[in-house]
Write a structure and sequence with these properties.
242 residues, alpha+beta, isomerase, Peptidyl-prolyl cis-trans isomerase FKBP17-1
């Protein structure tokens, strides 16, 4: 259960030139997923006292009215903070699940497709964002950057089961439906095993940086091979053709 801490402070003006009362409410709402606090501060400034007004009676009236405002505002803040915490917890609960017979590829469906499921021998068209985990999620390629003459992004085409693309992408696409979008984490064993496997970044510098990181001989000799080639792909299955 989420817990909230509310701190209430009343500062009363005194003396000439200090004719206003200030009330501050500080609400702290913990977010379970990151163990941090939301910090909300609300300041209420009451109207100036007039010369003909009774200070004590007006102050009492203002305090009573302010109490109602404090309760209402505090409840709104707590509800808002609780909703934010619940959303964060729900996002954290969405986990990548290992695909069956994939060699350790983990997937999270961002959007479920409604079209057919491809089979080996089908020509599939996909869009993707490719990122390298060893470089803090550096994006080394994206089909959305590959444009035709009209400026439209060109999808990546391949024959499912041909073995020309890295196994992790084939494993991800094989259980998708057309129209779906899936995020996959591909371990090195299901990623690039050589520099001829597709998809290959068309940009020379991106391609060089990608392969020199994955196949770095010094780091491989130090036993870092289990992390260097981990890939993250966001894949959209655009179409297929039997």
């Amino acid at each position: 259960m989420a817990k909230f801490l509310v701190s209430y402070t009343w500062i009363q003006g005194a003396g000439q030139g200090r004719e206003r009362d200030h009330t501050m409410i500080r609400c702290f709402a913990p977010v379970r997923s990151v163990h941090a606090f939301h910090n909300h501060t609300i300041r209420f400034v009451t109207p100036k006292l007039t010369a003909n007004s009774s200070s004590s009676s007006l102050l009492s009236t203002r305090r009573e009215a302010l109490t109602v405002s404090i309760v209402t505002t505090t409840l709104e803040i707590l509800i808002s903070s609780f909703s934010a915490s619940s959303s964060a917890a729900a996002a954290a609960a969405a986990e990548l699940l290992e695909l069956p017979n994939s060699g350790g590829v983990k997937a999270l469906d961002l959007r479920l497709g409604r079209g057919p499921v491809p089979v080996d021998g089908d020509q599939v068209a996909i869009h993707y964002y490719g990122r390298l985990a060893a470089k803090q999620g550096w994006r080394f390629d994206s089909t959305y950057d590959h444009k035709d003459q009209s400026g439209e992004p060109i999808p990546f085409l391949f024959i499912l089961g041909s073995g020309k693309v890295i196994p992790g992408i084939e494993a991800a696409v094989r259980s998708m439906k057309v129209g779906g979008i899936r995020r996959v984490v591909i371990p090195p064993s299901q990623g690039y095993q050589n520099t001829s496997q597709e998809p290959i970044p068309p940009n020379f510098f991106d391609r060089q940086r990608l392969f020199t990181t994955i196949f770095n001989p010094t780091r491989l000799a130090n036993g870092e091979g289990s992390t260097l080639g981990t890939l993250i792909f966001d894949i959209e299955l655009v179409s297929l053709r039997h």
